[in-house]
Amino acid sequence: MIDISELTHYYGSHCALNSVSLTVSSGSILGILGPNGSGKTTLFRILSTLYPVQQGQVTLVGISLTKDPAHIRHKIGVTFQAPSLDPRLTVEENLRYQGFLYGLAGNRLRDRIRELMQRLKLSDRLKDRVQSLSGGMQRRVEIAKGLLHDPQILILDEPSTGLDPGARIDLWIYLQQLRDESGMTILVTTHLMEEAERCDQLAILDRGVIAATGSPEELRSSLGGDCLTIKTEEPAQLQERIAADFQLSFQQVGNSLRLEAPAGHELLRNLVEAYPEEIQSVALGKPTLEDVFIARTGHQFWGAETE
Amino acid sequence: MTSGQQNSNSGNNIAAAGLAVRALATRELVRFFRQRTRIIGALGQPLIFWILFGAGLRGSFQAPEWAPAGMTYQEYFFPGIVVLIILFTAIFSTISLIEDRREGFLQGVLVAPIPRFSIVLGKLVGGTLLALIQAVLFLAIGPLLSLVGLAPAMQMDWSFGGVVAVAGFLILVAFALTALGYLIAWPMESTQGFHAIMSVFLMPMWLLSGAFFPVPDSGWLSWIMRANPLTYGVAGLRQLMYSGVEVTNSSQLPDVRMCVLTMFLFGLICTIIAVWMTGRRKSADQR
What we know:
The complex is a heterodimer.
Chain A: E1 2-11, E2 14-24, E3 29-33, H1 40-47, E4 55-60, E5 63-64, H2 69-75, E6 76-79, H3 91-101, H4 106-119, H5 135-147, E7 153-157, H6 165-182, E8 185-190, H7 193-197, E9 201-206, E10 209-214, H8 216-222, E11 226-232, H9 235-246, E12 251-253, E13 256-261, H10 264-274, E14 279-285, H11 289-297
Parallel strand pairs in A: 3-8, 3-9, 6-7, 7-8
Antiparallel strand pairs in A: 1-2, 1-4, 4-5, 9-10, 11-13, 11-14, 12-13
Chain B: H1 3-34, H2 36-56, H3 73-103, H4 105-110, H5 116-144, H6 160-185, H7 191-211, H8 220-227, H9 229-241, H10 256-279
Helix pairs in contact in B: 1-5, 2-3, 2-5, 3-5, 3-6, 3-7, 5-6, 5-10, 6-9, 6-10, 7-9, 9-10
């Protein structure tokens, strides 16, 4: 349904995407997980036809994005991170003009608006100006806007920006419903681990490069066993001592050391006994997606932004 | 693909473009009427200018040779103010393009499956209709002010044919100026930039169009004014408004056909450039 191969994109001399390749099968939710500046919005803008394809191939619904962007625009629904609604117009006006842009009019458009508003529980707000709606409601109208022409692919850029946790959960329930009931293929960019957990497939994007792909479960289990994180004041020094004493190579991430190990609890006990002074705190747990990110990229999730 | 299919496809495309233009233009109108202050800005300021300049410059005005006998400065200034209203409206409606980009509405339009020219036409048709509405309002209000002594009695041609010709020409001028505004606003990231262009380019363009003072017979000023496309907009409007009254032929006023042709070409060129700009997909565009 979505086929990206060796997609590369430059802003001047800055490489925002470096040979990105991805495939998304029909009827699944793909999450693009990455910190700000990782290139996910660039990828989103290329897929939504806003940016040209500079290098590489992108095929959506079997249509090449380089050859026929106009045709692709019919097949995809797009929900932007920044609102694309006109706040001075009512919900109905926004949706009606959107329908016109997609060649819908008359009864067909009216029925479609009514149907979507019912599904998104917004029927009673049709006549209200968008600026009077809460953030969660506005986001739902945005999604309705993207779904109006019944696209085969829905592309969302950080859809939960500005939503409270409750509205965020509702949003994801709705996206999963769309996948299950309409067989919609959904691509969503996010920097939130909890959102990434809800995707069927994930691609971890870091500095324009795909660092890992797989389902959240696969990615976590690929790390193997437990994840051990040690906080210390002298990480480099402790790293060397552990390497010498235990023949284990811990990864240094900021002020902490981390390692995936099959039997973490035993190692934890031995380490605390060996370096009671040096270790400030230790955390042991099943690997999270953040651990996967750190393991695959060698740096912290939010660290990349400032470099 | 057979030619029949092709025909019906291009028919569909035209219908889709028409629907898109209608949607975008209607939105302009709806937004405008929900912002009362814009009406005051676009109509009120020119009205005040007209009354104040009309009263203040009455003594120092020397009617040009083509003018009908007894033309006061305020009457001379009247068509100029109509063009100013059109210019202001064109500016306001194309400034909204910058707001649409900043607020995010534009990105939704850009990913829609519509030909790029319909994005331009939607804005231009909307802006033109707004300009026409306000210009017609002023054309109706202006002469009424003579009843309360704020304006002189005017000798314009109010015949049906004359009014239709004036309205048609106003549409042409409004379309051309909105197109000019569009191609200035499209690459802009902030409305402040547009205001700068407005004060150093658009306002002088209006001042040097024969709207404020007649084109001199010779000298550098006359050359600039003759090269200014808007001069033909003002001159054409003058002649159409006075078509029933004696307007002496003069080198200062270009022929009406010349005015229509100049405005048409000017609008066409601006529109073509605007469509070209809108069709370009640039990475920096939506950043």
